[in-house]
Amino acid sequence: LALPEYGLVMLAGRNERAVREAVSVMEEAAMAKGGDVNFQGRVEFVPLDLADAASVASSINIAGKILGGRKIDSVINNAGFAYGFDCELPVFDQASHTVNINYTNTRTLLDGLIPLMQPNTGRIVQLGSRAGNLSNFSGNPDAKRLLEDASGTLTAEKLDKIILGEYLDAAKKGDDAIKLGGWPGSTYSVSKAAINTYVRLLARSDAAKAVGVKVNVVCPGWCKTDMTRGEGHKTSTEGADTPTWLATSSDPVAVAANGEFFGERKSMSFVNAGF
Length: 275
Hints:
Number of helices: 11
Structural class: alpha/beta
Distance between the termini: 27 Å
Shape: globular
Strand content: 5-15%
């Protein structure tokens, strides 16, 4: 994205050294293509740790100051977290930490970005996962039915009650309670189901409608990254294709999409999207 036609690019992350290295590479690429150091082709680092609510609030404030009254055309939030299958921490510790990053603080970030978005044309793309397919909730039909939201009456408060209330209460009681309640065995799956669902709610919210912002979620596929310990079917570049397309393309499908779940540039079901 660090091309002159995109003007300002903000890169956020908790690993300042890694992000600043990426900023330097992008700045050099932009300048080589004729970017202006003062604004055109400029790349800025924004510190952001999604495990820390204070950092989330600070990052939104910093982004606003960098913008200086300008508005954001596109946001891609790629931050996320997963414990390995070999993790031996109690299920509640895993669940509370994973949900806090992938759902609670991510939701706060998305909410806070809405006022900074370009009116009527701004787009937010949240990275989700097919691991959050609602078919994984088949053992808990009540939760599955509410999350599917066929009636369109689900609210953020009801979503919190399911995820932050019922699910974390079960996790606090241990693995047996998770199984007895029919919850997915993966804390990552629950957290991704939560953020997948919240994107649908945010897309139809009064706040997003007032600004005219489109909000969608994308599964990049199983990519070879640090989080997957180098395993996966896709390179990170291949995984970035659909999010970048959805955030910046003039393709009518990408422009019109709102509250949808995408993979490989195609809209998919929130319930049983296949790999």
